[in-house]
């Protein structure tokens, strides 16, 4: 038995778990009783936990049903009779062979199924890639061509199987395409790569270009190589040279071709290095870009915003920082309220 | 020692199987009875558990705690049979004044047992009152702790509750007892009986 001092910090639970305490409850003896009485005299603060533990333990112990040995033996005998006969002879071998057979069946069914699914996924499934708010993602296509997607853009990529006959993708949003040149196997001609958007079909052979295709506008910037741009509605085709921008605004007849220098190209391409660039942008454009890229609506009401233009750069992957930059530029406070950001004058 | 018993069972040793059976069966029966109350159901269920243990012994890796493994098997079986959680009874019949001791082959009668545990009639009523203050869940946790020495983690896994719940159940259970002991002259009586 332990020295009394070991029990100083005991609570009811500790008593319940104590072997000598339990032994005493299950089979009380006068010596044990004297021992515990001595403990409580020595440390009167233990009376409460001891009392609780004693009550619980006696409650447990007195409801314990002690099944006799004959009863237990009889039960075991009955259990043995329920065992399958063949198990008793060579149980281990029987079990494992049966188990192996079952696994063999499962594998026989599952293997073609799983591999079929994988083959389907690899060769025949069309892929849809979607980027979220403030997310820029780079994809490598089957032929090694690279596509960089800006936030809130969608790319539909045909299956590998279809890709063998035509290289084409469907696209909305903002993206930069770096297309690898590829030769036809039989004819040795260069293979065409086509980007379909709502108002443009861009056919290329191997080049670098950027497409902006959101609700109001479509703009295509050619950085390298040559592309053929088709306006399917107007039925016109343009051959573009590097450094040219083709712009279309809802309501226009067709595309307008412009020469763009490096400075003018930046707002279209800077998102690739995670920057949103504005050059003398009116508030309507700022709001629209913000909504497109960060998925957040800015509310800019009041006289002070009329005739305002914004020039600057916002970090694409950090919405909070972008809002701080804007509020500093305007000298106003950005206040979020119900999924919108309100710009209020500082009190 | 325990390890080798299980290894012998896995190798197909009937005697080891009986040792294992005898070591655990009383606990399983007692536990089952508090979950369902019908001895024939519990008997069937415990038999099934051991039968399955024997049949599948080669594919079962040594459980860290055999007791835990078996208790869980019994609990799942009974639960599946009733399709809903049964209240965990205290063992003290809530309506009648007698201790529930079903009429089958037990080592000692309830009365003898009370004498053996040095519990007189007055004390018996106190215990009964105290046990019925606890909720079924509290009873089950304390029961598992007391008789089977399961860890809290095992109790949680067995009953499908979180560690926090288990701890707070026990804590509040003890709190109920404490306030009850304080309010009533129970503790006074207790220490009186105890010291004089």
TrEMBL record, chain A:
Q: Which UniProt keywords apply?
A: Membrane, Transmembrane, Transmembrane helix
Q: Which residues form the FecR protein domain?
A: 129-227
Mind telling me which Gene3D superfamilies this protein's record contains? 2.60.120.1440, 3.55.50.30
Recorded hits in InterPro entries, A to Z, give: FecR, FecR_C, Ferrdict_sens_TM
Q: Which domain of life is it from?
A: Bacteria
| UniProt entry tagged with the keyword Flavoprotein | no
Per the record's keyword annotation, is RNA-binding included, yes or no? no
Sequence intervals crossing the membrane: 103-123
All residue ranges annotated as the Protein FecR C-terminal domain in the record: 276-328
Q: Spell out the Pfam families in the cross-references.
A: FecR (PF04773), FecR_C (PF16344)
List the PANTHER family hit by this protein, alphabetically: PERIPLASMIC SIGNAL SENSOR AND SIGMA FACTOR ACTIVATOR FECR-RELATED, PROTEIN FECR
In its UniProt entry, what is this protein called?
A: FecR family protein
Q: Which organism is it from?
A: Ravibacter arvi
Automatic annotation (TrEMBL), chain B:
* InterPro entries with a match to the protein in the record: RNA_pol_sigma-70-like, RNA_pol_sigma-70_dom, RNA_pol_sigma70_r2, RNA_pol_sigma70_r4_t2, RNA_pol_sigma_r2, RNA_pol_sigma_r3/r4-like, WH-like_DNA-bd_sf
Domain RNA polymerase sigma-70 region, chain residue ranges per copy: 21-86
Tell me which SUPFAM superfamilies the record gives. Sigma2 domain of RNA polymerase sigma factors (SSF88946), Sigma3 and sigma4 domains of RNA polymerase sigma factors (SSF88659)
Residues in RNA polymerase sigma factor 70 region 4 type domain copies? 125-175
UniProt keyword list: Sigma factor, Transcription, Transcription regulation
Q: Which family does it belong to?
A: Belongs to the sigma-70 factor family. ECF subfamily.
Pfam families in UniProt: Sigma70_r2, Sigma70_r4_2
What is the name of this protein? Sigma-70 family RNA polymerase sigma factor
